[in-house]
Amino acid sequence: MNSEDLSVKIFKALGHPIRLQIVKSLLDQSRCVCELLPAFDYSQANLSQHLKILREAGILENKKIGVEMHYRVKLKGITTLLEIMDQTAIEYFETLDFKPNENR
């Protein structure tokens, strides 16, 4: 796998709204699955599938502590990448004639 393939894999993993939310929730600290479940209205199996995709993309890493599986962001550049993505979205909305939170 070359760096371009890996970049595509990372963007694909972050391209799903749930996975993006999971990563954002792990930016400040590691969390166990039991802490993530209440924040997401999905089954543990569904959440585990999303976590697996994020791990396989190299974005997250996990560590078993006792009986709990803890996840954290593995790549430090992810924080910067997400900040740039958010800023780009804001910049895009500024080019339009409405605001992102405006209801039509």
TrEMBL record:
Name the InterPro entries for this protein: ArsR-like_HTH (IPR011991), HTH_ArsR_DNA-bd_dom (IPR001845), HTH_MetalResp_TranReg (IPR051081), WH-like_DNA-bd_sf (IPR036388), WH_DNA-bd_sf (IPR036390)
The record's Pfam families line, in alphabetical order, gives: HTH_5
Organism domain of life: Bacteria
Sequence ranges assigned to domain HTH arsR-type in this UniProt record:
1-93
Q: Does the keyword Transcription regulation apply?
A: yes
UniProt keyword list: DNA-binding, Transcription, Transcription regulation
Q: Which CDD domains does the entry link to? A: HTH_ARSR
Which PROSITE patterns would you find in this protein's record?
Answer: HTH_ARSR_2
What name has this protein been given in UniProt?
Metalloregulator ArsR/SmtB family transcription factor
